[in-house]
Amino acid sequence: MCDTLVSLTGDGVLFAKNSDRDPNEAQVLRWYPAATTTATRLRCTWSEIDQVPRTHAVLLSQPWWMWGAEMGANEHGVVIGNEAVFTRGTGRERSDSALLGMDLLRLGLERGATAEDAVGVIVGLLERHGQGGSCSHEHPRFTYDNSFIVADPDGAIVLETAGRRWATERVTGRGRSISNGLTIPAFARAHADPVRGRVAQCAARQARTQASAEGADDVAAMLAALRDHGGPAPRWSRVNGALSAPCAHAAGMITTTQSTASWVADLRGDPRHWVTATSAPCTSLAKPVRVDEPVVVDPEAMPSNRYDAAYRWWRHERLHRLALSDHAAALAVFGGARDRVEKEWLHDPPGSAEAFAAADELEESWRHELAEAGLGDTRPGWLRRRWRGIDRAAGMPEAGS
Fold first, then answer.
1. How confident is the model at residue 88 (pLDDT cuts 50, 70, 90)?
2. Is the pLDDT assigned to residue 326 strictly greater than 80?
């Protein structure tokens, strides 16, 4: 699932997103430069479409197996986040040119110099090609339509889709959020699937993120919105895990999803982005990055759904999964340090390479602190068993090793 929000402050635009995916789906940052090409065709995740002669430089948060991205920004200050939405009566395209919502997001960033341009790119491709293809590596039959918040320094637009149909709404109030249900009233009445929406808990999460979007006035407030559990710790459900609030952790039998990456964009002045590049914003540090200042974060090759310490996403999972055994007690150990570091960085941002290196060291030290604290596992038995299966599938090391 996912949550995306935008806040229109007196000083400018703030954007934030939690990307909720399968718990072993590593997600990595990738920089792609502006390019000029003579190629006429472009291979996306599942399909091939016409290429354009020029593309913009982009910074993307990409699940390991797809061409597209869950969220990202381009050199012109455009940012986009997408949501899975569940619709009635649209079906899924089976043509060789149908696109994933995540492909549409990347294409909007590569081809649109403003939010309005990017929306036009997505709508044009949607009408021509439709949406199609599996949306999950772990669950190949899982498919959905998409909604988007597209923002730039001048404002934001909500774009919602159902098959090849679409509707837009310019954000005119103090803030706006979207979750996993259609929110433009007339479009929602015509196309929303209320049953799947209830399973996804989209109304509960969207109500929380909407309040946050209307009240946030800085990056710290947007990060706090992404870390919201609806209480002091995740609330677990056998049906959908901890999906009743924006900071999601996997466990459900019907919906197994967790926040696998988080992003805040500060478009007030010279755009700067704050990314976790790791799952679970509650256990992660947000690091500053820019589209025009690439840093080497991970190996050039993509990771996979198996543990690999060469990638910072997987290294962080050792801290995250250890913390889940007793979330409240774990955050009592290192949450204060996380907040102090972020407060310093927000006041005086370090260079990206410095921040990533420091985050690696700090998160490893916090993992050792948790291991030495000998926290018990307070989760119910069914939840412990669920996570043991997730860990086995990933080949995770033993928590205390």
1. confident
2. yes
- In the chain the domains, ranked by start, together with CATH numbers, are 2-302 (3.60.60.10)
Residue at token pair 């690696």: 360
Selecting among 2, 44, 202, 282, the annotated active-site residue is 2
Instruction: Give dist(CA 55, CA 123) in Å, integer.
Output: 18
Residue 258 phi, psi dihedral angles, 5° rounding? -145, 165
Gyration radius of the chain's alpha carbons: 20
- Using CA atoms, how far residue 277 sits from 107, 177, 207, 245, in Å, is 21, 22, 26, 20
Q: What is the Cα–Cα distance from 100 to 125, expressed in whole angstroms? A: 11
**pLDDT of 253 higher than 80:** no
- Tell me how crowded residue 153 is: count the other CB atoms within 10 A of its CB: 18
Is the model's pTM score more than 0.85?
A: yes
Report DSSP letters for 295-354, one per residue. ---S-SS---SS--TTSHHHHHHHHHHHHGGGHHHHHHHHHHHHHHHHHHHHHSPPPHHH
Closest to 292 (Cα-Cα) out of 278, 272, 277: 272
Closest CA to 171 of 324, 31, 5: 5
Q: Is 302 exposed, middle or buried (0-12, 13-18, 19+ CB in 10 A)?
A: middle
Find the DSSP H helices in 30-114: 101-111
Q: Is 2 a catalytic residue?
A: yes
In the block, tokens 């955050």 appear at 331
- How confident is the model over 363-376, as a mean pLDDT? 95
